[in-house]
Amino acid sequence: MNSKNVFSTTYRQDYFKGYSIGQNPLLQIDPNNNSFGYISGFNSGRMDYEEMNGQIAKGIPKRIVTIKILEEFLLAGLLGLGIEETDDFTSYQLNVIGKWYQSGVEKYDPEQSNYLFEILESRGIQIV
């Protein structure tokens, strides 16, 4: 496959299909699908999964860490909130979560947080 095909609709569809399967630790690559996009997507999805959750060969954790979960911990750090719900995460996952949370803590600005809390409260959203 030449690099021009990477921008085709077919490649993108195959890539995203492979990526979503790669993100699911319970699924394996489809041996009958040998398109470059599918294989690239699967490998990318599996790498992203294992980067956040650890190697599948070492077991599948009770809770799966996603970008959305990491962004929530980053936001908690940005707002100066503590982290509480860490049950069911592995030590590998907690290490990844800790890095995202710490990144938020390093950017924490109490004045900005108070302003955001006021906006949220004015809209009926209570931050505990």
Task: Characterise the protein shown here.
It is a single chain. The chain is an all-alpha fold and 128 residues long. The chain has 2 domains: 56 residues; 56 residues, no CATH class. 58% of the residues lie in helices and 0% in strands. Helix 1 runs parallel beside helix 2 and helix 3 packs across helix 4. The longest helix is centred in the middle third of the chain and has 18 residues. The mean pLDDT is 90.
Mean pLDDT: 90
SSE pattern, N- to C-terminal: HHHHH
Oligomer: single chain
Give the low-confidence spans: none
Gyration radius, rounded: 19 Å
Hey, roughly how much beta strand do the residues contain?
under 5%
Number of helices: 5
| Principal-axis shape | elongated
Counting DSSP E segments of at least 2 residues, the number of strands comes to: 0
Give the helix proportion (percent range): 55-70%
Largest sheet: none
Q: Ends: how far apart? A: 54 Å
> Which structural class fits the helix and strand makeup?
mainly alpha
Counting structural domains, the number is 2
